[in-house]
Design brief:
327 residues, 2 domains, homopentamer, alpha+beta, 5 strands, 9 helices, rod-shaped, five-stranded mixed beta sheet
């Protein structure tokens, strides 16, 4: 591992028999990239794709060079979400040029360490095996990100059903949006790796192709998980709507129970609050002058309330229909 | 059937003409697996796939060996749900190595018993027929699990339409989640079996291929059922939302009927509760001093109530619109 | 047409030049089926498929025999729904063996009658033409079932928009479930017939293949109709939800109109029901002692009510927004 | 253009070198069709397809004849919707037989007129070019129908968002149903034309094939539009539901504002309507005897009302949330 | 760059060895187009496609000419939305004829400027490279339009969750409609470019094909973005519905809290507003004559209110469930 200052310093390494990995981090200086392009004899389209950071993952065959554009995701540390970064590979006979923009968020560090320690079979193999190792590390980097989403969806499920708030809604939508991003990152990656396996480029040996098949399987697994999570999050939106409706039912039930009990009672009280002149006629509110008038009136009210409560209790409205604390 | 302690004890069996089935249960000891890998001359990727329990079902051809990764489901006993476990097959010329993690939940016991009793055609056939028998047992193991879901969906349907609660919602969502799992287990299995039939590996005879075609048909049938249940459960979510809205309608109707009847009546009572001084003018609430004032007032109230009740009855609001106990 | 008691009685017919149709109805006796298997030299898998009544429709080629599994549907008589039954065909050189479980619900009776009457071209043709005729009758048997669903969906549409009840919901869901069943029956049938046409088995002549192409067209037409009805029934669920919400709007409007008019009025009545002592101060409810106090108060109330009614009328809340009897 | 009475009169035309177009309108008489079948030597399946008016569009090759089944749509004049009619073509060496049921609703009249006037290149070309011209007229006949739906969807959009009624719901559902019909008509048409282009039948010259490619492009365009309109109408259903919910929000807001303001006020009025005996104790409603009692009470009420109005105004409930007349 | 008046003036340029780009802007005069057709020897179908402005993007091979129909989008300046315009290319041996309708909204100006300045490699290359440059400019013109939608969707998200109004609904629906238009523009474009790459027409050199591959990648990227945005906007509709329901919950909660607190209190006030004659019996409302009657009554009311407030506070109804200003 050696830090070089100018692209031209790479030239002597390209001629040696051993495999060279040129790992460009950061794309700040346009001039340097152009000189790099000259050193590695890159096609203008290759250079354009490498510089343009929003490319779709793909594999392109330029006879003596293979351009592989991949997309790497790294989970954000404290908050949810992930960094997404493009990694471009230019695979030559005995060199591998990789370009990435921000060197901080990176899931390739592991591979670098393994090479430095001279451990594993990476050092004994060719540039194609090195490319496979890096691709594999990139694909495997999707799993921790996906597991985060799996955990969050599980947490959200409980929240959605029993405590749906606007924040929940926002979170579900955000997860959907981020899963769409992941999907846009992994789908073309699968096509790219499948192209690497199928198109029999001479730059990739038969042995490495078997390893790439394994890498392809993992890509499909990532896609599977993304699709499953997308379906779950989309189902969660339906659940949210249902849960909100459910909660409204609870609210309405309470309102209805309270209103239905007290409105008739208030009416009865209103009746005996009328000022009909009891002295003008024996038919004008004789109840007001009865000896037991007030107690009877209260008893009637209590009976009405009890009757309504019984009616609501039989309908099951008095217990929370979910049997759990509703908010 | 013989219990061996170390992988090396298998070696003499590999050389014999007869078919050997080495059934590894539990993956605890890594060292043993590596020795096993040496005894059976497994490719490092094969060993990795066998150990890694989250692999997708697949078939891989390593010239003199076929790696088949399958996923087995076993219904949980009392509660709903299923155990899902990976079973790896390494099919050689005259041996079959199967590896699974937990030997408790298992749908292969039947096959073991049939072999021990020396019954059936399994003993007379080669290792490929044995692999087919096991694969067939694994696929057939999906049916009892699916039937459970069919039953649960039927039960839920009634509950959703007539008694929608939050638990119902949770159950529908859980079923959807578990069906997605089943789907992720069965789809690649179909591809794997289809690969076995199509790729004319020498390890599988033409006769067994015909049997595998039958196995493939069953896989497609499982997939069909999973998809049907998924559509049903997804439709159930819509039904749930509609049923909750429906229930809210019932609640609102009751509130509206009660409010609409008693609020006007209370207003009438309120009128005659006013304290306008009847002595100051003949126009100030003369009703209060009428001989029939109170009875007429009650009669007017009764008429209003009867009129509103008739109005609601004609609109059909007094009978439950479903004709059934609503909660 | 001859009723035979034992499978062995069929043997002489198999040798004759003419075409024999052996029509087994009911699967009660397992022994008989095994003897049948021996007489017709059936592969063990064929026998298994014939006996197992839940198979998917398919075509399998056993060199001198073609196994065709088809699924027949017959509309239930009074209630909605259909019987679904498996019919297995074993097509040989000059015989056709058909097996079905319950002979009652059957759409093949027509064909039997045509053969008995010696009419039509069926008798002059080979076993393959007979098989085509039966398959065609089975496919055509889907149309009356589908028409029933078309009629029911049309009826439901009106009901859903103007009188949505829980029964409606249940019916929509049931139709969806049954259409999923139909779909599971017809999709593999299409694949099976397409296989019959494509795979150039010697048991089927070129002439019959042209007829099968027609049969295939009808299968596609059935599929088309099933898919259309599924989309319609799924759209109906959305309509249901919207209609229920709409109905709730009507209910809420009534409640709001009634409450908004009477609550302010009741408040005014409440004001003049207060007992402030008019004798203590000229500012304490002087209205009570006015000459025109009560009439003015009533006039104010009437004005408030009229104002609110005008407000609601201009918003269009007083007329049913649908212009039709809402329940 | 000549009106013939019996099918046999066509015979002399079939032998001539020139191209004959036999245009059968109406299918009333079965006998005539059978004689027609004999004159044109039609395969029994062709005759069956021609008579059976519910066939799917398709192309079938009968060596010296091509059967083309197409479906024509004509917009209804005043109301929305379209007539759908089957047109069958039998294309021979130098004749074209077309059969349609109802001659009234027709988009082929244009072609007939062009031929009669002897204008255009139709007269100089073969029967295949004539068939192309008719097919092209049929496909182009879809566009005016589709434009009607485009217009209606645009109109409905406004209505759905600002004035959702039950009629709107019914119209959206009807449009969906009719678009499904259009889709069922156009999809197989595309396959049929694609078959005409791909299968190199001798009855169609290379020149006409280029024209058919253009016709195919138009079919795809029709399909595109149908799919777009279907998505729009399905989105409109979601919009409808949201708009209805929105409207309910408006209603509920009004109810809540009115109730929340007047219920507390009525309570205050109720307080001072109580009959506690002010003479028994100085603590019994001394307010009633205050000099400023009533004015203070009214002021308190006004303050409460103002406070609540301010609260609602700040929440934005007093202005229509849409800023537009809500109903 | 030269402005010509009549199509015939182009003739001398067609014979020269250099590459000519004839750029027709505006389609007003039909006669000119026909003369143009004669000069360039266009097939009548080509001329028809060029004139008819609603064609789907496509590529058609007329041996010595390639017809490419593309669709260009240009963002509208102040309001949201885009202009969509058809650009037709006729690619010959050494000329390129492009026809577009309105020259104002145009994303090809850049290319024109580059050519005029004689800069870049465009001038040194053939007509096919020129066609590629224009196609590339057209495809790249989709990105600014899509970015606008990305921004709008992000803005809408916040609005939908926290301030859903009818305008929001309308905007979501409009975005969906416009994305459907974009989709209809870009899908066939992809097929067209893929056809250009695959069909090995002699008019396109191998070098340009490599560039077209890059152009194809960009088209796929546009499609990806359109699909992602469509899913997001469709998810936004669900979010909208949920948010509206959520808001209704808030409204209902307020109504329920206010009603549930004041209705019981009003009832208590109503009780003591009754006019039972306390002189007739000691049981008739003795409370009215108690020394502490009124204070006790008020205390009871306060206790009831406090109890209910506590109940609602514990349920979390008093704080906005979202913790944010709800409207």
């Amino acid at each position: 591992r050696k830090q070089v200052e100018t692209p031209e310093e790479c030239i002597p390494y390209l001629d040696t028999q051993s495999v060279s990995w040129v790992d460009v981090q950061g794309l700040g200086n346009k001039d340097i990239l152009e000189r790099l392009g000259k050193v590695f004899e890159l096609h203008p389209l290759v250079l354009e794709d490498v510089v343009n950071m929003g490319e779709r993952p793909k594999v392109e065959d330029y006879e003596d060079q293979l351009l592989i554009i991949a997309r790497m995701v790294v989970p954000k540390e404290r908050i949810c979400g992930f960094y997404s970064e493009q990694v471009s590979f230019v695979l030559g006979k005995n060199y591998l040029l990789t370009v990435q923009e921000e060197p901080e968020h990176d899931c390739l560090e592991n591979v670098r360490i393994r090479i430095e320690r001279g451990k594993g079979i990476i050092r004994k193999q060719g540039a194609d095996y090195l490319a496979y190792t890096l691709l594999d590390a990139i694909i495997d980097g999707f799993f921790p990100v996906l597991e985060l989403y799996g955990d969050r969806l599980e947490e959200l499920e409980e929240e959605v059903i029993f405590k749906p708030t606007r924040q929940t809604l926002q979170q579900i939508y955000q997860i959907r949006r981020e899963l769409l991003q992941l999907r846009r990152a992994i789908w073309p990656q699968r096509d790219a790796i499948s192209t690497l396996i199928r198109d029999r480029s001479e730059l990739i040996t038969e042995d490495v192709r078997i390893y790439l098949r394994d890498c392809y399987d993992h890509t499909v697994q990532v896609m599977d998980m993304v699709e499953t999570y997308r379906e779950l999050s989309s189902g969660l939106m339906d659940v949210y709507l249902s849960a909100v409706s459910n909660k409204m039912n609870e609210i309405m039930k309470l309102l209805t129970v309270v209103s239905s009990i007290f409105i008739p009672l208030t009416f009865v009280a209103g009746i005996y609050g009328m000022n009909f002149n009891t002295e003008k006629s024996p038919y004008n509110m004789p109840e007001l002058n009865w000896y037991w008038g007030y107690p009877i009136c209260l008893a009637v009210m209590a009976a009405i309330a009890a009757g309504l409560l019984f009616f609501f209790w039989r309908r099951g409205w008095l217990t929370n229909s979910s049997g759990i604390k509703s908010d």
